[in-house]
Specification:
The complex is a heterodimer of chains A (514) and B (643). Chain A has 22 helices and two strands. Chain A is mainly alpha-helical. A two-stranded antiparallel ribbon of chain A has the order 1-2. In chain A, helix 2 (32-54) runs parallel beside helix 4, helix 6 (146-156) runs antiparallel to helix 7 (162-193) and helix 13 (274-301) packs antiparallel against helix 14 (305-325). With 643 residues, chain B is mainly alpha-helical. A three-stranded mixed β-sheet of chain B has the order 1-2-3. Chain B starts with 11 loop residues before the first strand and ends with a helix. Classes of the chains: A mainly alpha (514), B mainly alpha (643). At the A-B interface, helix 6, helix 7, helix 13, helix 15 and helix 18 of A face strand 2, helix 5, helix 6, helix 7 and helix 23 of B.
């Protein structure tokens, strides 16, 4: 089974499932497409578990499949995963069944088959994005994700301005895509000039670029990824999208798809253009810090809960980008783990908010109050998602947030001091929202969650708690991949200024072992 | 041999009974998990399970303590590495426990007083439909607080630190259908988070400096670090301590926290959690001993707070808020002890423990009074209650005598030692501490008189309704009696300097210095000042008629004290207001400028806006077209370059 194309199968199963689901008779509210979608998502999850079990953390890029695709361009159908890619693959497959189950009735008044079909397609394409080891392939699937995303927002969204929001999302992404395209073409030009044209990431990374070319190419990729992630000032598609899409769609877009931006920064910007990345670091760090504070402040005063959750992500993507660009092991491992944790905690918030909105018919916070009295389980799960989002120790997002802040502090204490304001601002936006929604005298009757709804969220809460106390298995997968990135950007961690502590600690450990 | 701090012996690997630290934490944690996940299924017996886990945890803690007593002073530190929490690069954070004389005392205080308060709550919360949930939160708190004091590294402390913050949030807001309770819980959490900024930065700086966050490793490295670095770490830790321990300038949340059920105020906001800052500084003695500026800052904060809280306590008519002001002030005393360094650490912890006894006693007593008075908290509606709630009165009186420092009672020994040490270090600080003792005597006597003596003022003149006070059930008076006994006899810990020697392996040995005047004379002066405070209260409150509504023609100072010395006003003006204004400004900026540039509705009209309008006619078709166009562009571009 060593040559079995595990990754191709993993990516194709949801795509095939998408086709199948979309082809089922599209009666509004039909159960069959939902069951098909859930089944497909669970099979995908099982496949990913097999992939994870076959994965050896210390053996670099693996489960690779490389076939020449378009010889003239040097494009390959090349897949593979390392610790970073695998983490994001696992995030995607865990969230997919959760979203399907949580969105069960979200398209009952529309074309149900197509809705769930698009969801599976989006997830399948996202998997290919995280597995692609060829820039051209990456670009194609990256652009392809826009099609399902566009229809999910524009045709199934609940917001009044969903058509506008979908178009805004699309234009933003296309603009980013076009800029990236310039760099993709540029890569070809350079590699062709060096002999055989190639788009394989491994070969491009080994090739290296001269300073000026590298910086231009870097800029093309970075701008596209900054829009995707997003960072200030190219973020305004984010609240308008989350404010109009269904919460399930928002989870796929913000918790999974946006990770392409930060993933791309690690994989492409840092690994292909290390010199340019170091050159751009001051600017990127500044943008990241602005995003952290700006997103959090906007979230505090937002009255639309779905926009609010979207804006918190602006703040979180700032932290993830910061972790990546401080270029230390703690910062980058933390940022990678952050991508996973943000996905899980934010999904809880989006989905529970979605449950509430379905019941009350309003996504404005000011039109709610006292929900806890009627629906304690709903309120409790919402609070748990919020506590994850604000980085409470004992839940997994804390570990990654701490690592990023530590990395930022190590980079420069002023940057660390700005980054750490996030922990206060996050407490304000989460608890202020919770207070206004859930507490106070009992409001209008709200039914508490059904078994299906709790079942969808419970696994995510469990993951947050388990990884909060025992994150090391995931970090063991991420760390070696980050070590490799450190090598390619030619950076090493600063040693402690007073290394005595280490010496003594070793002695202590020896005594302990004796 | 324990004179210098950096040569502390490395803790031994915990084995036998000393390896049970995890169980002490796991018992209440399991209780919390069962009660909170089990939901209504556990309603019938939830309170019993919650109490049982706390008592069992106390049992294990007691067994460990007895075993520790049997060891030599050099062999009283046990480290237990449970598992690797997270390791990235040079950062290796273990789920590590440290059981030593300091944590041993805290474990007993937390589980002991905690168990009593669980028992009391069975009665106090008997008629609350959500009692099971209350016990789940209490268990969660106990587990987190134990993690805080048993952790072997700063990140472990932080895990417990934020855990107690969460439990405190949940319990202050337990009656969250009241807007005031919901607001108070949020305020407490957010203000604590401001302090936690200090904690996170301190831990970061420790890692950058020493490459480690464990107590042993950091202690071993301090010798090589610059004083500026250690001062920075110390000040950052102090910021964290100010948040958790309600010290100025992060004191504002504590009075509002009285919105929580009274057992919560007793356990969390008097006996245990709010003393975590004192623990943190005592635990970090190896840093503060080498960080003189930070140590001075601790003393300044402590002195300001001990007077600040005492002044507030003088003007409050709400019995719980008067006690809360008092708590703030008493923690100021403990912080003062911790700020005085090696000479003061042991006395800070001593006062922390005796305060845990007598303040828990009085808060629970206040709860019993409120129970009798239909949950009225206004002391102006009390009076002459000593006859109707005799057990509550007598036990409360023991707490009262302890806090004012009546000779022989526990608080007398602990406060006397703190004031004496303060005089040794600095006369100004000593005088402030002495003054605080006088004010304490005044406000506590005022509280005592207004509640249990003076004329009865129970009836509401408007409605004519009058409560019918009654003594609380045995399940509530039993903990009161135990705590009253501890309030009286808690001073025994000082016998033969036991607590000082007990803590020496942790905080080091202090050479004894005599105060500027003989210790006995100083004690006499303290007692005289306390007597003066009592006398003033007697003449201004006890000898006069207490009006049922608070008079409004009062001095500027009284008005200020009633308004918590304008702490909230200062915060609102300097921090909350500007932040909200900035956020709203940014919201407008984002809509009109940043998004406006894209949407073409605001200041700028860009090409994209026009494009949006065009594409929106039949957008699906246009979309397909644009994808096609993109793909074609790639091919063309590639071909062009290829040529």
């Amino acid at each position: 089974m060593n040559d079995f194309p595990w990754l191709s199968v993993l990516g194709l199963v949801p795509l095939a499932g998408a086709l199948l689901t979309a082809l089922t008779p599209s009666r509004p509210g039909a159960v069959l497409p939902k069951q098909l979608a859930l089944g497909t998502s669970l099979v995908t999850l099982a496949l990913a578990v097999v992939v994870a079990l076959r994965y050896e953390p210390d053996e670099g890029m693996q489960l690779t499949e490389t076939h020449t695709w378009i010889e003239a361009f040097g494009a390959h159908y090349a897949l593979g995963v390392d610790g970073i890619g695998l983490s994001l693959v696992l995030l995607t497959v865990v969230l997919l069944p959760v979203v399907v189950l949580a969105s069960w009735n979200d398209a009952d008044d529309k074309d149900t088959s197509a809705f769930f079909g698009w969801m599976l397609a989006l997830a399948g394409l996202a998997l290919f994005v995280f597995m692609a080891q060829d820039v051209f392939l990456f670009y194609v699937v990256f652009e392809a994700t826009l099609i399902p995303a566009y229809f999910l927002i524009g045709s199934y969204g609940h917001g009044a301005e969903r058509a506008h929001a979908a178009m805004k999302f699309l234009l933003y992404m296309l603009a980013g895509g076009l800029i990236m395209l310039a760099s993709v073409v540029g890569l070809y030009a350079v590699s062709a000039a060096n002999g055989e044209p190639t788009y394989l990431i491994s070969e491009l990374a080994a090739m290296g670029f001269d300073k000026e070319t590298g910086r231009w190419l870097f800029a093309g990729f970075f701008i596209a990824f900054a829009i995707k992630a997003p960072l200030f000032p190219v973020h305004t598609w984010l609240p308008s999208t989350t404010g109009n899409a269904t919460p399930g769609t928002s989870v796929l877009l913000i918790c999974v798809l946006d990770k392409i931006g930060t993933y791309g920064m690690l994989r492409f910007c840092l690994e292909l253009f290390p010199e340019a990345s170091r050159w751009a670091t001051p600017l990127v760090v500044t943008l990241a810090v602005i995003s952290i504070v700006y997103g959090a402040l906007l979230a505090i005063v937002s009255d639309d809960m779905l926009k609010l959750i979207g804006l918190t992500s602006l703040s979180h993507f700032g932290l993830i980008t910061l972790g990546i660009f401080v270029m230390s092991t703690q910062g980058m491992s933390g940022a990678t783990f952050y991508m996973v944790n943000h996905g899980i905690a934010t999904a809880v918030l989006f989905l529970v908010a979605g449950y509430l909105i379905r019941r009350s018919g309003s996504q404005l916070i000011s039109e709610h109050g006292g929900v806890e009295k009627h629906a304690p389980v709903l309120a409790g799960l919402f609070l748990l998602g919020g506590l994850g989002t604000l980085g409470l120790p004992g839940l997994s997002p804390f570990v990654s947030e701490f690592l990023v802040i530590l990395g930022a502090f190590d980079y420069h204490w002023v940057v660390g001091a700005f980054a750490v304001t996030a922990i206060v601002l996050a407490a304000v936006y989460v608890l202020r929202m919770y207070q206004r929604l859930m507490t106070g005298p009992a409001g209008p009757e709200v039914a508490d969650l059904q078994v299906r709804e709790v079942t969808a969220i419970a696994p995510l809460v469990l993951v947050m708690v388990v990884l909060g106390f025992y994150p090391q298995p995931v970090l063991d997968v991420i760390n070696p991949a980050i070590d490799a990135v450190m090598v390619s950007v030619d950076e090493t961690d600063d040693p402690p200024t007073v290394p005595i502590g280490e010496v003594v600690m070793e002695q202590t450990n020896e005594e302990v072992h004796q | 041999m324990l004179t210098t701090l950096t040569t502390l012996p490395a803790p031994a690997v915990a084995d036998g009974v000393f390896a049970l630290g995890w169980l002490v934490i796991a018992l209440p944690l399991a209780g919390a998990a069962i009660l909170l996940v089990g939901g209504r299924l556990t309603d019938a017996w939830g309170h019993l399970l919650g109490t049982a886990t706390a008592v069992a945890s106390f049992g294990v803690g007691l067994a460990m303590f007895i075993a520790l007593l049997g060891e030599d002073a050099e062999h009283r530190q046990y480290a237990d590495h449970l598992w690797t929490w997270f390791q990235v690069g040079g950062l290796d954070v273990g789920m590590d426990l440290l059981y030593d004389p300091l944590s041993a005392l805290f474990v007993l205080l937390i589980t002991g007083v905690g168990s009593l308060i669980h028992i009391y709550s069975i009665g106090y919360m008997a008629h609350d439909p959500r009692r099971r949930r209350f016990f789940g939160y209490l268990n969660l708190f106990i587990a987190a607080m134990l993690m805080l004091v048993l952790a072997g590294n700063y990140l472990g402390v932080f895990l417990g630190w934020e855990g107690v913050g969460l439990a405190s949030y949940l319990l202050i807001g337990f009656w969250q259908h009241k807007d005031s309770a919901a607001a108070a819980s949020k305020k407490a959490f957010v203000m604590n988070r401001v302090g936690d900024v200090g904690m996170v930065l301190a831990i970061s700086l420790m890692f950058v400096t020493f490459g480690a966050t464990g107590f042993a490793a950091v202690a071993a490295g301090v010798g090589g670090a610059s004083e500026a670095t250690l001062n920075a770490i110390g000040l950052l830790l102090l910021l964290g301590a100010c948040g958790k321990s309600a010290q100025v300038p992060l004191q504002g949340w504590l009075l509002d926290a009285m919105e929580g059920p009274t057992p919560v105020s007793a356990l969390i906001h008097a006996a245990t959690m709010v003393t975590a800052g004192v623990y943190l500084i005592t635990r970090s003695n190896f840093i503060f001993e080498n960080a003189p500026a930070a140590q001075t800052a601790v003393v300044i904060v402590a002195v300001v707070t001990l007077l600040w809280g005492a002044i507030i306590g003088c003007a409050k008519d709400d019995i719980k808020k008067a006690l809360a002001g008092s708590t703030m002030s008493q923690i100021g005393y403990m912080m003062l002890g911790a700020g005085l360094g090696v000479a003061g650490y042991a006395f800070a912890i001593f006062h922390l423990i005796t305060h845990g006894f007598f303040k828990a006693n009085m808060f629970l007593g206040a709860g019993s009074v409120m129970h009798a008075m239909d949950d009225d908290v206004d002391m102006r509606h009390y009076g002459a209650l000593r006859k109707v709630v005799p057990v509550t009165f007598l036990t409360f009186a023991m707490g009262y005598l302890a806090i004012i420092g009546f000779p022989g009672f526990s608080g007398f020994w602990s406060k006397d030692k703190l004031i004496e040490t303060a005089f040794v270090e600095n006369t100004v600080v000593g005088v402030a501490a002495l003054l605080g003792a006088g004010i304490t005597a005044f406000y506590m006597t005022r509280l005592m008189l207004m509640t249990f003596f003076t004329d009865k003022r129970w009836a509401d003149p408007q409605t004519g309704k009058e409560p019918h006070p009654h003594e609380s059930p045995a399940v509530m008076t039993f903990p009161l009696i135990v705590l009253a006994a501890l309030s009286i006899f808690g001073g025994v810990m000082l016998a033969g300097d036991w607590i000082v020697e007990w803590l020496e392996p942790v905080v080091g040995h202090a050479e004894h210095h005599d105060p500027p005047i003989p210790a006995l004379a100083l004690t006499a002066i303290i007692v005289a000042v306390v007597a003066l405070g009592v006398a003033i209260a007697w003449f201004t409150v006890g000898k006069r008629e207490v009006p049922r509504t608070a008079p409004s023609d009062v001095s500027v100072l009284t008005k200020a004290a009633r308004a918590d010395l304008y702490g909230d006003a200062i915060n609102d003006t300097l921090v909350v207001g500007p932040t909200m204004a900035l956020a709203r400004g940014l919201q407008t900026f984002d809509d009109t400028v940043v998004d406006g540039a894209v949407e073409g509705q605001g200041l700028a009209t860009s090409g994209i806006a026009g494009l949006v309008r065009k594409v929106q006619n039949g957008y699906v078709r246009s979309y397909a077209l644009s994808i096609l166009l993109g793909a074609a562009l790639v091919v063309l571009a590639l071909l062009a370059v290829n040529w």
